[in-house]
Amino acid sequence: MEDGPDGKGGHAGHRARLRTRFLEGGADALADYELLELVLFLAQPRIDTKPLAKALIARFGGFAATIAAEPAVLMGVDGVGETTVAALKTVQAAAIRLAREDATGRHALSSWDKVLAYCRTALAHETTERFHVLFLDAKNALIRTEAQGKGTIDHTPVYPREVVKRALELGAAAIILVHNHPSGDPTPSKADTEMTREVADAAKALGIALHDHIIVGRAGHASFKALGLL
């Protein structure tokens, strides 16, 4: 069960102080577990959430990794139920949407920091490989991002024809490929390089440019273009 006895007195005072610190100093005024407490307040309003916040941070390694964890894995932590999972995943979805909207409509190549911020927010802490495509118009403005595949811990099936077909449907003039390495090391593998060449060839045949392939991981990111692989 997620809800316990009504936590008044000390709990209420602690929550009020934590909220005040957050509102006055922002997220930087709080430790990871304290920021997580604020989220848990919404899901578990009647108990002391500090022990659970600390347990989640210890289990997953940080705030970002906690909200990015798979629902089934989160549910395996004692004290976490559907309401708590929904609260955590809502925070993750809000962060991804904010980063995506900050990048959408911008000239992708001259707002590269915004593109990378979105890619890292969406994928850096995922525990399985996920493959996304960013679709750009003729002026290289980002018009849409879509998930194209979800795989295992070290592989995602990608079908070049499907990627190009979707680009044509959206009227995209260029694309950027993005996927993550759950290992944390963004170094391209041989399979990554071969798949990128296949997509580039299929896209070029139809007049669509492949600007880059970005691999993100907790340790940073790798750009095929920067590495001279495109």
Give a summary of the structure in a few sentences:
With 230 residues, the chain is of the alpha+beta class. It has helices at residues 10-25, 32-43, 50-60, 63-68, 71-74, 82-103, 112-123, 160-170, 190-205; strands spanning 130-136, 142-150, 174-180, 209-217, 220-223.
Question: How would you describe this protein?
Answer:
48% of the residues lie in helices and 16% in strands. The chain has 230 residues and is an alpha+beta fold. It folds into 2 domains: 10-95, no CATH class; 107-223, 3-Layer(aba) Sandwich (Cytidine Deaminase, domain 2). The chain has a 5-stranded mixed sheet, sandwiched between helices. The longest helix has 22 residues, at 82-103. It is elongated and about 65 Å long.
How would you sum up the global shape?
elongated
Number of helices: 9
Strand content: 15-25%
User: Structural class of the secondary elements?
Assistant: alpha+beta
User: How many strand units?
Assistant: 5
Query: Which CATH first-tier class of the largest domain would you pick?
Result: Alpha Beta
CATH superfamily grouping of the largest domain: Cytidine Deaminase, domain 2
User: What radius of gyration results from the CA coordinates?
Assistant: 20 Å
Question: What name does the CATH topology of the largest domain carry?
Answer: Cytidine Deaminase, domain 2
Widest sheet: strand ordering:
2-1-3-4-5
How much helical structure, as a percent, in the residues? 40-55%
Q: What would CATH call the architecture of the largest domain?
A: 3-Layer(aba) Sandwich
How many discrete domains? Answer: 2
Major β-sheet, in short? Answer: 5 strands, mixed
Separation of the first and last Cα atoms: 52 Å
Q: What does the average pLDDT come to?
A: 85
Helix and strand element order: HHHHHHHEEHEHEE
Unreliably modeled segments: 1-7
